[in-house]
Write a structure and sequence with these properties.
Elements: H1 2-7, H2 12-15, H3 22-32, H4 37-53, H5 64-76, H6 82-100, H7 125-133, H8 137-149, H9 153-157, E1 164-165, E2 170-176, E3 180-185, H10 191-210, H11 222-225, E4 245-246, E5 253-254, H12 260-274, H13 282-295, H14 300-307, H15 312-315
Antiparallel strand pairs: 1-2, 2-3, 4-5
Helix pairs in contact: 3-4, 3-6, 4-6, 5-6, 7-12, 8-13
Length: 336
């Protein structure tokens, strides 16, 4: 019962018109501010951890010392990374500021997890080519777009047909990290493959329409403003699921975009087949995109815009590739 009381798993109060439970309020506050589902899931997780760390006491009864103790525990006992500790703190600050309605003051001497300086894993051009060669069909096209346009995994999978501008050789990335839109390039070599892929996808979409379905989820409740838009071709996913999802209660069917785990598994298998010992993931294609542009002499500000980084300092980490062998210094042993 204590768990239900805190978590709001039994939402009888909400059903009776009373104030919803704490975590329901947290979710509502985040959705009202258009936080991503991933961030919502993370913040809810850390609030739960915080509550149970303090023996299921309501956060309204807790203050700065308890937050300090929780964050210090994460750093010392659980040895979490600095980014994980910061994420936990952000979740708690959001809870107190927007749900409980109280600002958090000085947290005192919080023991902070150390933030190491990490260099991104980058593939050479030959390694990128080898990994792409082992990817089948549309998986190769997805990975090629991530490398050729510097897309994040979710940005690639969430592309809609209207986001691809073949005439201007541009891709419009909508609602990227930080809820920002940006424009990046459409690689010339991928245009024929994309045309062929979209032709097949349109055939599937038209078949769905003929069978009475073909509606797609719309952003920001646009389907209420434009009721026919979810059926239009321009709003369809570039990379739709192979099978339609089905609501067993209503009988409604539709297609979402390809799930990220499908591409992640395909890339992992392709890397295994190439024999690479580097820790390559889908995001490595984006790192390689930025690094290879720097090697080709493009300026850091241009690359920052293409990647969608808020600060140029974030992009600067890729300049390590220009410092080959210790600031470009030739080792004396190479002269023997």
């Amino acid at each position: 019962m204590a768990r239900d009381k805190i978590y709001g798993l039994r939402n009888t109060q909400a059903e009776n018109g009373l104030k919803p439970k704490l975590l329901d309020q947290l979710r509502e506050a985040m959705r009202a501010r258009h936080y991503s589902p991933r961030t919502e899931q993370s913040y809810v997780h850390w609030v739960k951890r915080f509550i149970f760390f303090h023996n299921v006491r309501h956060p309204d009864e807790l203050a700065e010392p308890e937050i300090n103790a929780f964050l210090t525990h994460l750093a010392i006992k659980e040895k979490v990374s600095a980014s994980t500790q910061n994420q936990a703190l952000s979740g708690l600050l959001f809870l107190y500021r927007h749900v409980i309605g109280r600002e958090i003051g000085d947290l005192g001497e919080v023991i902070r997890a150390r933030k190491p300086t990490r260099l991104p894993v980058v593939m050479t051009r030959g390694e990128v080519k080898a990994v792409l060669a082992y990817l089948p069909g549309d998986k190769r096209l997805m990975a090629s777009l991530m490398y050729g346009a510097g897309l994040r995994l979710k940005e690639c999978l969430c592309l809609r047909v209207q986001d691809i501008d073949f005439s201007s050789n541009e891709i419009l990335v909508r609602n990227g990290k930080g809820a920002k839109d940006r424009i990046t390039m459409l690689p010339e070599s991928l245009k024929p493959l994309l045309h062929a892929h979209l032709k097949k996808s349109r055939t599937i979409h038209e078949k769905d329409l003929d069978e009475g379905w073909g509606r797609v989820l719309m952003p920001d409740a646009l389907d209420r403003k434009y009721p026919n838009a979810p059926r239009e071709w321009r709003w369809q996913w570039v990379f739709p699921q192979q099978k339609r999802w089905k609501n067993w209660k209503t009988g409604e069917e539709g297609r979402h975009h390809t799930h990220e785990t499908i591409l992640q598994r395909a890339v992992k298998e392709a890397v295994r087949k190439t024999g690479l010992i580097k820790r390559v993931s889908c995001h490595t294609f984006r790192h390689s995109f930025a690094t290879h542009l720097l090697e080709d002499g493009y300026d850091i500000r241009t690359i920052q815009e293409l990647l969608g980084h808020k600060h140029v300092g974030t992009t600067m980490i890729y300049t390590h590739v220009l410092q080959k062998g210790g600031q470009g210094v030739r080792s004396p042993i190479d002269g023997l």
